[in-house]
Amino acid sequence: MSSIELAKMNDLSSALIVDPYLGFKTHKIYDSYPPSLSNAEVFKLQEIVLEYLQDQSLEEAYKKFRIFCTDYTDLNEQLLRKQMASHLQTLDEDVGAGIRPCKRYSKDEQNGVQIIATRKWKKHEVIPSLFGHVAQITNEEENTLRVANKNFSVMESTRNNAKYLLLGSISFVNSSCDANCETDILNELIRQYTGASAEKTTVGIRTKRTLAKDEEITVFYGEDYFGDENKECECPACERSLCELTRLAGECPWTPVLRFATNLRLAPRAATAPHSF
């Protein structure tokens, strides 16, 4: 599986499943690849999602979504099935997590999302609906994605010092410098919980502590993911830290440009980033 195949199948899957469900276009690696849909087609896709949520048949849902892919000659059927399974299960809030629009982060503009816990989770539990697949990318490919501001799903392996593209429902999980979850290779657990085909490229999410219902699910992307030492991080933990520092300094904690003007940030976290594997 190449990174290009993974990105295209993920873009197509999210365009057919997640975007109609949310009502807006989520982030894509290849903007020109997903189809342009009419209002009638969007309505039909929403119906397919609702039918899946009722009958829980991934196979039947895939057959219906596949009708919208007839114009594509480069489909990787097996990979598309996996990405659709990942995205569909993100919409099933009975599993314990749900996707929501999110306008918190400046780079997201109008197409940001977040993943919310829809029930209480215990420490060290696997959240079965949040998983994805990885494909290794070269430094040149990573630089191209960074320049185009499309490196939102790039992760680094601490085991072999390589960079990977991580896509699927797991890529909708936002970063926090005080993350409540971590990523890991969870092949057998993902297979056990979801019945989905899981390989060595399957990455899942495990809780680091107890999560309350309606709490956002987060992981830590890495020390320098948002600029040097994450000085440009906009996560809630950094906001709380900024508020405390500005309170002690006697300044207004809600000045939007204060973070970037003063380069205030949380103290460094653990050296091993949960968003690595």
UniProtKB/TrEMBL annotation:
MF annotations from Gene Ontology: histone H4K20 methyltransferase activity
GO cellular component: chromosome; nucleus
Native species: Bemisia tabaci
A Pfam family it matches: SET
Principal localisation: nucleus
Keywords: Chromatin regulator, Chromosome, Methyltransferase, Nucleus, S-adenosyl-L-methionine, Transferase
Keyword S-adenosyl-L-methionine: yes
Keyword S-adenosyl-L-methionine part of the UniProt annotation: yes
Subcellular location: Chromosome; Nucleus
GO annotation terms (biological process): methylation
Domain SET residues, every copy: 101-222
Cleavable signal peptide: none
UniProt-listed InterPro entries: Hist-Lys_N-MTase_N, SET_dom, SET_dom_sf, Suv4-20/Set9
UniProt-recorded name of the protein: SET domain-containing protein
Matches recorded under SMART domains: SET
